[in-house]
Task: structure prediction
Amino acid sequence: MKLRNRLVALALSAAPLASFGYTTSAIDSLAWRVTEGTAKNRIFFTTKESPVDFYEVVPCGNTVMINGNNAVSQAVGLNRYLKDVARIHISWNNLTQPLPEVLPMPDSVMRGSTDLPYRYYLNYCTFSYSMPFWDEDRWMKEIDWMALHGINMPLDIVGTEAVWSNVLRRLGYSSDEIKEFLPGPAFTAWWLMNNLEGWGGPMTDQWIEQQAKLNKAIIARMKSLGISPVLPGYSGMVPRTAGKKLGLDIADPGRWCEFPRPAFQKPDDPSFDRLASIYYEELTKLYGTSRFYSMDPFHEGGSTEGVDLAKAGVKIMEQMKKASPEAVWVIQGWHINPRTEMLDTLALGSMAVLDLNAEKTPMWGDELSEICRPDGFKGHDWIYCMLLNFGGNVGLHGRMDQLVDGFFKARGSRFASSLKGVGATPEGIENNPVMYELLYELPWMEFKPELHAWLRDYLHARYGKEPSDSLMSAWDNLYATVYNAPTDYRGQGTVESVICARPDWDLKSVSTWGSSKLFYSPSLTARAAALMEGQGKGNNFEYDFADVARQANADEANRLLIAMSGLMRRGLKKQAEKLSEEFLRLIDRQDSLLSQRSDTHVDTWLRHASDAATNPTQKLQNVNNAALLITVWGDSAAANVAGLHEYSHREWGGITGDLYKKRWQAFFDHQFRNGPKPDYYRMELDWIDRMRKKY
Result:
């Protein structure tokens, strides 16, 4: 059998390229891009029909043939070859890497398939916490990353400002009135989730045009690879002024974190169909139709008084189907959404529910979950999702065992027939790459993996060589701690670094809904950092080592603060003061560490915001938005009453030394040297002002 395979491979290697069905296709171009041109004339692709998504990686002499039923499946095959054979890991910190001069070959044909047709990606929040100032080049690299990971239905809300501008103009709104409704560039996520309007604006005409142009390029690249973007549909959201100005029958959903929400057009309003029709016309003119549309009415609460929810669901679905008859409504399973009244009245097969935080609190019917829905999603299709990150916060975090166990439990449950795929729904990305690799491999796995063995393979690919015993021990520590957070952990996402907090002695969290309580000994992350030192090289290793060292420093800061608090409670002020000096020196070390890489420095975030603008007005607005988002978030009421301050804090170089350390210094001066009581909100506004002037 081995001899026969070898003869077939030799015959294939001698065949003319035409026999491979060779063309310069979208998948060829992707392979060339991610390998910096080194895949050209060395890796080839063919398309074969199949009832399920599949790939094959076939050794052919000194070339590699990758078969698949579509471009995304072929891209998955390419990624499997890169990781398992070439030992190349394409990651956010390293989005392209060349192949070696001698092309390594798999020992035999590699195959994979999945009967799960949907692989979803992104959260509305990701577009604000990570992506608001991305240019076309960065987006194109992300789309390549998506295809390599099998993603075929990512959310796409870029350029929606242009759609709404055109809609409101047709309804008689002036340019100034339109801009009162549109948010600033970093706050579009919450505008489109019906949480706020206008905050961070006014948006300039140039930015609206620029984002529309960008999204046309995004959609063109996605569709060339067979990726179907999930576009924002019409859910009934209208400006708060629409009742008086347009005579609409609207409901007032109230407030979200002290922001007035946009109004909601009632489904029995005679104008509902007309407004929805105008919306879809303008959306289609700009970006075409889609197989998927996302609508999330009454996200995170919102009053539904006076709204017939069942009728609203029917109307929303009806208008989506008029725009695109085969379309599927994608809705977030979050808090009490999707509403039972809607699920009960909508036809099966036309909705896909994202079980948004299934790796921690699944809704799908897992009886052990605190928010279990005993009937699942009432027979509607659903997607098993990993949320992982909140606010774009920095920190090592995951639930590897729960992610895998929960997925295979769902596969074996009575809800398996309506389970249609997996998805990543993070609020922020470019962190914890190991968790995304694990998630997007799940649909292609026939059996539950043994995670220690899986980790060894992951590290082999990520670092380009077999991991040493020391390196494996380091990752065993991480697997047992940060990457297996308990499901009953109070916080959202990572253990928060107290360095980033508004100072206090007995801190429970940095952000209102997070937690800084360690569920493991800080010595374990310190041990992991020590074990990793000197065990690798290259961008991937250096990124990981810096990240683990940062986590160890953050955990040590947590320990020091607990020790200082204990001393203060016992009246040992002098001893506490001495520890405070150690705490400040630790912050200096953290800032120095984080300042060594551009991807862990606040200047990168702010510079991208500045560089994305085409005129001084937009530049000032972009930088202001970027600085606001990662500090106070909103106005005084939103920051200090609703508690949004620090929700999107970032343990990055620059801000760690220039804001976080200064707050702690002011706190210690007040506690130990009778200095004035610090006004942290004022300090944060001053930092924002300095950043506006700097950029």
